[in-house]
Amino acid sequence: MMLLRMIWGELVGLFVDDGALALQVVVLIAAVTVAVKLLGLAPLLAAALVLVGCLAILGFSLQRAKAK
Questions:
Q1: 33 CB contacts (<8 Å, ≥6 apart)?
Q2: Nearest Cα to 59, choosing from 24, 32, 8, 35?
Q3: Quick one: CA torsion of 55, 57, 60, 65, rounded to 10 degrees?
Q4: Neighbouring C-beta atoms of residue 29, cutoff 10 Å
Q5: How many CA atoms lie within 13 A of 28 on its CB side?
Q6: 30 vs 35, 38, 61, CA distance in Å?
Q7: What is the model's pTM?
Q8: Are the beta carbons of 32 and 49 closer than 8 angstroms?
Q9: DSSP class of residue 30?
Q10: What is the mean pLDDT of each run of 10 residues along the chain (68 residues)?
């Protein structure tokens, strides 16, 4: 049973290393989705927002890691 827990922990760690980073990306995607569906934002502009937003989130995450 302990082996399964270790394997599960490693698998989760592959995808969610920094919980704040993952949460911020999910919030960004949700916000852009709402903007597309409710506000009629153009899909190409939404894709650009997701790209720039993800890069900004990654940059801030790297700065936080560097400061530690």
A1: 46
A2: 24
A3: -100
A4: 15
A5: 19
A6: 9, 12, 19
A7: 0.74
A8: yes
A9: H
A10: 86 72 92 96 97 95 83
Angle at 60 between CA 64 and CA 11, to 5 degrees: 75
List of residues 6+ apart from 24 with CB closer than 8 A: 57
Domain ranges for the chain: 18-67
C-alpha torsion angle, residues 63, 61, 59, 14 (rounded to 10):
130
Query: What one-character DSSP code corresponds to residue 56?
Result: H
> In this structure, which amino acid lies at residue 57?
I
Q: Residue 15 corresponds to which amino acid?
A: F
